[in-house]
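Dear colleagues,

As part of the handover before I leave the project, I'm documenting each prediction I ran so the next person doesn't have to rerun anything. This entry is a single chain, and its sequence is reproduced below.
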Amino acid sequence: MVKIADYDFLLADDGPAAIVIREFLMPVEGPGGVVFPSTYAAGGTFKGGYNIDIDPSTNKKICLIDSVGSQANRIEPIFRMEKYRQLVPQIVVEAGDREVSIFEAGHRAGDALFRCCELQPEIDAAFRSVLKGNCQPIAKLAPTSLVFGVWDSRATQAKLPRIVASTIRAFDVHELTRSAVYIPPLDYSALEVFTDEEKTKAEGDNKSPLAKRGFVHNPASQAPGGVLVHGEIRRDATLQLAALRHLHVYADPDQTLTLRRYILGLSLVAFTAPPQSYLRQGCTLVRDPNASHECVVVGVDGNRTTIDLSHDAMIAYAGLAAKGFGVGADRTVQFQKELASKDVKADEKEKKGKAAKK
């Protein structure tokens, strides 16, 4: 039976630095299957497409399959599920016919959505408490913001690092391309929808209105076609115990321990939850049954010790910790257009002020 003090050694001031999971994955199609990584928009010197770097020591390519942010966005929504929902307050914003959970908001408690509802004063006060050394209010409102990190970049500038982070990369990859062509079911020019001259001009120009609307042949050549992985696909997940120990309830050691136990429990649940296999079209990854996987506690001296973290046991521990801390109340609040308009105007005013200074 799990006891509340069982994992206090992870929270001790002289405790370990982190817990690390390293597991090896493979395409659901099997070895040699093509994997489609995330694609990113162009910016700066980056032309857009896959995020691929070259290891200068081997001259081999390393491809980012799923980023830290993307992995967090896949893991955090589990706390809406029946199995976990009693561990955290369920905060929902209603906007018209939409309902948005805090677990779906990209910036969590720091998201614009929560500056535009009746929770805004409470969240603002909670962030200001963080700056004063008290993380209890934000843990009552939005505890997963402590687990996955949050930055109140538009207001108080309070910033809390990720405690749980996960990334998937593929090593020694070869980029592939793919080509396709759309063939319309009818010859619309023969039906006098447009002229043969307009048809000829539009074919091959995927930016033309006729091509965009699907009225002419539209070839797409040399588009990103995934990557062939010659090395390994690896998921590295870290639970930063050193970062967790920066959470305080002022200088109260008892309340601080209760808070840390609660956030550790949520972090262990997120950390050990079975990862999603389906990442996107063309990228379904499963564990490689022939590879060795590890879950280790890493000491500040670098020593690594294997640890057994059963997911069910972590849920049980998190339940005890949540009971001791006192989970915040569930809330359903309304989006307030007036607050959103005020926030937008405040941003415009800030931009004008900066322009005037220049």
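The mean pLDDT is 93. The chain has two domains: 8-31+66-170+233-351, 173-226.

All the best with the project,
I.
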